[in-house]
Amino acid sequence: MKTKILEVSGLNKSFGGLHATRNLDFALSEGDLDAIIGPNGAGKSTFFNLLTGYHRPDSGSILFNGENIAGRLPHEITRMGISRAFQISNIFPKMTAFHNVRSAVQAQMGLAFSLFRSADKSGNEQTEEVLSLCGLIEKREAMAGALSQGDKKKLELAIALAGKPKLLLLDEPTAGMSLEETQETMALVDHLNRDRNITVLFTEHDLSVVFNHARNITLLHYGRIIIQGMPDQVRMNETAQKVYFGEQY
């Protein structure tokens, strides 16, 4: 039986009387590769913000490896082993791809980082390993702001991996990518999950990506969970078809 890495119970968050999440119960086991889907405004990004400390829940608990992290600060949660790649780019556009990842590596090491101090060898090696893994090693000296949209998303992923996560949260990882870039990125996600034992939870509007890669799917609608299950269970659910899939599936 697989160990639970994430257990969410009774999670509630409101903004000005609008319920973004409503009494959510959710769990992930070590090694899972799962997706959260739903229309815009369903509560997906809010849920990720609650998991990563960018929002404080009104009530409920978030257990990561058995420890309640609800209300912890983002950097504390990152140090504990949860990393996130954002839907909207969170890179430093006037820094090179190398230094974007290098700063994340340094933060993970817990040391102050400056472009004007010599970086230690192990940090540089880790940075280059992550860039290579994400297909960016040949663009290491490119300014991040000059990268294509697809490469910016890859850089977001590289920055998240620099934190050596046990749980990786990906917010629309293939948004803005070509078909080839999408296939490359999801092949990498599969590799990270399968060969490096990183648990992955992702949101995605491209349903072909969801059904081809997620082992379990959760559908959110107005902050509530409509259905959780294996892809075929979710695909055939009548309510899911009405509120989200329409005639696509």
TrEMBL record:
SUPFAM superfamilies: P-loop containing nucleoside triphosphate hydrolases. CDD domains: ABC_Mj1267_LivG_branched (cd03219). Signal peptide: none annotated. InterPro entries: AAA+_ATPase, ABC_AA/LPS_Transport, ABC_transporter-like_ATP-bd, ABC_transporter-like_CS, P-loop_NTPase. Keywords: ATP-binding, Nucleotide-binding, Transport. One of its GO terms (molecular function) is L-phenylalanine transmembrane transporter activity. Coiled coil: none annotated. This is ABC transporter related. It comes from Syntrophobacter fumaroxidans (strain DSM 10017 / MPOB). The lineage of its organism: Bacteria, Pseudomonadati, Thermodesulfobacteriota, Syntrophobacteria, Syntrophobacterales.
